[in-house]
Design a protein that fits this description.
The complex is a heterodimer of chains A (about 300) and B (about 350). By secondary structure, chain A is mainly α. Chain A is built from twelve helices and no strands. Chain B is mainly α. Chain B is about 75% helix and about 0% strand. Chain B is globular, with a radius of gyration of 26 Å. The chains are: A mainly alpha (about 300), B mainly alpha (about 350).
Chain lengths: ~300, ~350
């Protein structure tokens, strides 16, 4: 019975003649998923990212200890001693618990940066591409200035002015990471601004704002999603770098970059204190890279080799 | 071809088409210079914005919040903050153009002097890293393209993927642990071991060259032992980038018809790869190498912190933690200048090497 029903919805999703708009959309998404599923590495990336989200959400329930709970009698214990699966740091805090809570910080930074930077890029890029003229020239010059500059250094200068802290790190990274999105959105807009459906919308009396928000921007979303996913790894690395330099999350917050930094002093004798948080950064940014590559193949077939 | 016949030009005089071409080239290059100038101005605008606008009150940052009213006003006038913003920016641009980055709070010296002192160390590191990147990245990229989808290609892919995912400061720490702590193959952090410090006179600021000039080979090898690990860590990122780009350039060439023709003629595979294809790849490759050199400056900030390397990156981060804004912005501008300069250079090289770009 259930098998039959399953056959039923699969066939409906894959049918060439969808009966409604929603069915057509779902069918497209399902086909994308079937293609995505072929790429095993991308699936692995997706699994790790999902695991990261689950761990971040459930942190208080799965962490064996509180991340700030200090116990100087049990400092710098190697992995596997007693109740500390990954050992303890210089204050006797449980490293595993700090890694679990650190997932929250990482996710917080990545999501906020994406939520700030992608819309800025989208608005700047579509406006520049659609309106053209001097506005385009001016906006693209601004973009070029930001692009012609190493983003970490610029983020460092912003944080220096704003003061260290996790919110300021987010603002600094967002301020330096929107230009590529603007470029992509502009390129997409240039290809669709002269299409018939835009002309029709204009003739029907749609204003510039309506055309941009309802007709142009939705079409830029898929390529932007790919780029944002691919950039997640870079954002994680920049955030970790800021944390490592002591400019991101402030102690005692469990941030992976800052954990590597404080563990650095003990590297020759207690290697695990610095090594394990760094491994976490590596795995998560690797996962985002794999996921981004897989998404690119599905959502942006033009870029395929 | 035309250059091969020296009499050609004299015989025909300067052809009108050449004039047109020259003027187009001039217009293009002047547009190009205009863009560079605009980028530099934008860079200054960003640093001006960061230094003057982002802090809520720059005067308070100087005098503190306990200062009496008249001191506050005096400092405000002295800093030029009672002037309109555009005038302040103009004064700022003039000062920066003269190389006056102000005084460092931390060292009590002009920032420009400090930067001159620390820059050679970064240059040394970045140069070594680029050498490593080219020496390993180019052959790897070629191997990846020649044996596409076989193990050399997979290796290039893995190296690239890891390069895009690994935090550089962590890689440096692991490197220190393994090669210095466990194996003892290299020297520890810093540029020289303590007992070798100040043994050679400073000529260029690059210790390896200075030691070679002074014929102090013990110092030379000690400095070499110090530079190997940080530049290898930094160089790994160049390897990843250069190999990836070389591979895609090579693949593009190997699918061209002239390669098939060469094969049909019976040209050996080695000659096809190393002479025919590589020559065509070399032009874009130069650009990639130049860009990777510039990108290393960014990685240098974190690498220098890990390895206590007294270069520009470490200067920048020390200044950051001390909230020494003059030093931070000075170093930022210098990095930006180098970035723009290298972009400019690679563009010029491209025009010079690629006959189609003229």
């Amino acid at each position: 019975m259930s098998d039959h029903a399953k056959q039923g919805w699969r066939a409906r999703l894959l049918s060439e003649t969808p009966r409604s708009r929603r069915e057509a959309k779902l069918g497209q998404a399902y086909r994308g998923w079937l293609q995505f599923r072929q790429n095993r590495l991308a699936l692995l990336g997706l699994a790790i990212v999902v695991a990261l989200i689950v761990i971040a959400v459930l942190a208080p329930w799965i962490a064996p200890h509180h991340p700030h709970e200090e116990n100087l009698a049990q400092r710098l214990l190697p992995p596997g001693t007693g109740a500390h699966l990954l050992g303890t740091d210089e204050f006797g805090r449980d490293i595993l618990s700090r890694i679990i809570y650190g997932a929250r910080v990482t996710l917080y930074i990545v999501v906020l940066v994406a939520l700030i930077a992608a819309p800025i890029g989208l608005i700047v890029g579509t406006a520049a591409g659609y309106l053209g003229g001097w506005l385009d020239a001016a906006l693209m010059r601004v973009t070029d200035v930001f692009l012609s500059f190493p983003s970490l250094i610029l983020a460092l200068a912003f944080v220096a002015a704003l003061g260290p802290g996790i919110e300021n790190a987010v603002i600094a990274i967002a301020l330096t990471s929107w230009p590529p999105y603007a470029r992509i959105a502009r390129a997409e807009t240039m290809t669709i601004r002269n299409s018939d459906f835009i002309a029709v919308a204009r003739i029907q009396g749609a204003g510039t704002g309506r055309i941009l928000f309802r007709h142009v921007m939705p079409l830029c979303v898929s390529s932007l999603t790919v780029r944002v996913t691919l950039d997640m790894a870079g954002i994680i690395l920049t955030a970790a770098g800021l944390g490592f330099l002591g400019l991101g999350a402030q102690p005692p917050m469990a941030e992976w970059g800052a954990m590597v930094s404080s563990g650095r002093r003990y590297i020759l004798d207690q290697w695990w204190v610095a090594t394990i948080p760094g491994l976490a950064i590596f795995i998560v940014s690797l996962a985002f890279n794999l996921l981004g590559d897989g998404l690119r193949d599905v959502l942006d077939p033009r870029q395929k080799k | 071809m035309l250059q091969a016949r020296p009499g050609f030009r004299q015989f025909f005089g300067v052809r009108p088409r050449d004039k047109v071409k020259a003027s187009i080239a001039l217009r293009q290059s002047s547009g190009f210079l205009f863009q560079v100038a605009l980028t530099l101005l934008g860079l200054l605008a960003v640093t001006f914005f960061i230094g003057r606008v982002v802090p809520i009150d720059p005067v308070l940052a100087v005098v503190g919040d306990q200062a009496p009213r008249d001191v506050y006003e005096a400092v405000k006038r002295e800093l030029g903050l009672d002037q309109p913003l555009w005038w302040q920016f103009w004064v700022y641009v003039k000062k920066m153009a003269a190389g006056d980055f102000g005084q460092s709070l931390l060292t009590n010296r002009p920032v420009i002097e400090d930067i001159k002192r620390v820059f050679p160390a970064t240059l040394e590191l970045a140069t070594f890293a680029t050498i490593i990147g080219v020496a390993l990245g180019v052959p790897m990229g070629i191997a990846g393209a020649v044996w596409q989808d076989r193990w050399p290609d997979q290796l290039v892919r893995v190296v690239g993927l890891v390069g895009y995912s690994v935090p550089i400061f962590w890689l440096g720490i692991i490197g220190l642990l393994v090669f210095y702590g466990i194996l003892g193959w290299v020297q520890g952090p810093g540029r020289l071991s303590v007992f070798f410090e100040d043994m050679v006179p400073v000529v260029t600021g690059v210790i390896l060259i200075d030691a070679a000039i002074a014929r102090e080979w013990e110092v030379f090898w000690n400095a070499f032992g110090h530079v190997v690990l940080p530049s290898a860590v930094l160089g790994y990122f160049s390897i990843a980038y250069i190999a990836r780009m070389t591979r895609s350039f090579m693949l593009e060439q190997l699918n061209q018809e002239y390669i098939i023709t060469a094969r049909a003629k019976g040209v050996s595979e080695a000659r096809i790869i190393w002479v025919h294809a590589l020559r065509n790849v070399s032009v874009p490759l130069v650009t990639v190498i130049a860009l990777s050199y510039a990108r290393l400056l960014e990685g240098a900030v974190l690498t220098e912190t890990v390895f206590a390397w007294p270069g520009l990156g470490r200067y920048l981060t020390t200044a950051l933690l001390a909230a020494d804004m003059n030093a931070v912005l000075g170093a930022t501008i210098v990095v930006g200048l180098v970035f723009v300069g290298i972009n400019l250079l690679s563009d010029l090289l491209y025009r010079l090497l690629d006959p189609r770009a003229k």
